[in-house]
Write a structure and sequence with these properties.
Elements lengths: L4 E4 L5 H11 L7 H17 L3 E8 L4 E12 L6 E10 L8 H16 L3 E3 L6 H6 L15
Parallel strand pairs: 4-5
Antiparallel strand pairs: 1-2, 2-3, 3-4
C-alpha cells in the first residue's frame, strides 16, 4: 500500500468519519444525530478558524477516506503559547500498521510547526508505543472526571 494522501476534512467526509468513529470509540457511544447536527459541523468550523486540525487520509483510485485525525489547539499559560492536543486518531482496522496513522500524525506535527504551537501532546492508553516511534515522550498521566 502506498502512503495515503492527507488533507483537511470537509463536510462531505461526514459519513466516512462517522463510520471510522464508530470503530474507534470505546468509552462513548456515538449518536448520529448529535454528530451530524452539532459535533461534526462545530469541528469543521473550528478547523477552518485555526482552533483545530481535522485531517483525513485517503487511499485508492476512488480516494476513499481510510483514517482521520482530530487535534485541538489550546492556548496555555504554562507552555507560553498554544499546544496542539491530538485527541482522536483512527484508521480502518484492516489497513492499520501500513503508515496511514503515522502520515496523519506527521501532517499534524507539520501544521503545529507552521502554527508555531509550542508542542503536540496526546493522551493515550492504548497506543503509547506507536506515538513513541514518532518521537513523543511520556510526560504525564491523563485523568478524567465525567460530568454525566
Amino acid at each position: 500500500m502506498t502512503i495515503p494522501t492527507v488533507r483537511d476534512a470537509t463536510p462531505s467526509d461526514a459519513d466516512a468519519v462517522y463510520r471510522l468513529l464508530t470503530g474507534f470509540v470505546t468509552s462513548h457511544r456515538p449518536d448520529r444525530a448529535v454528530f451530524d447536527g452539532v459535533t461534526f459541523p462545530r469541528i469543521i468550523e473550528s478547523a477552518a478558524d485555526g482552533g483545530a486540525e481535522f485531517l483525513v487520509a485517503e487511499a485508492g483510485q476512488d480516494t476513499h477516506v481510510i483514517g482521520y485525525l482530530l487535534a485541538l489547539r489550546v492556548p496555555t499559560l504554562f507552555a507560553g503559547g498554544t499546544i496542539l492536543e491530538l485527541l482522536e486518531l483512527t484508521v480502518d482496522a484492516p489497513l492499520r500498521g501500513r503508515g496511514t496513522g503515522a502520515a496523519l500524525v506527521r501532517a499534524a506535527q507539520a501544521r503545529a510547526r507552521e502554527a508555531k504551537d509550542v508542542e503536540v501532546t496526546v493522551p493515550t492508553r492504548r497506543a503509547a508505543d506507536f506515538y513513541r516511534t514518532l518521537g513523543f515522550q511520556e510526560t504525564a498521566v491523563h485523568l478524567k472526571w465525567p460530568t454525566v
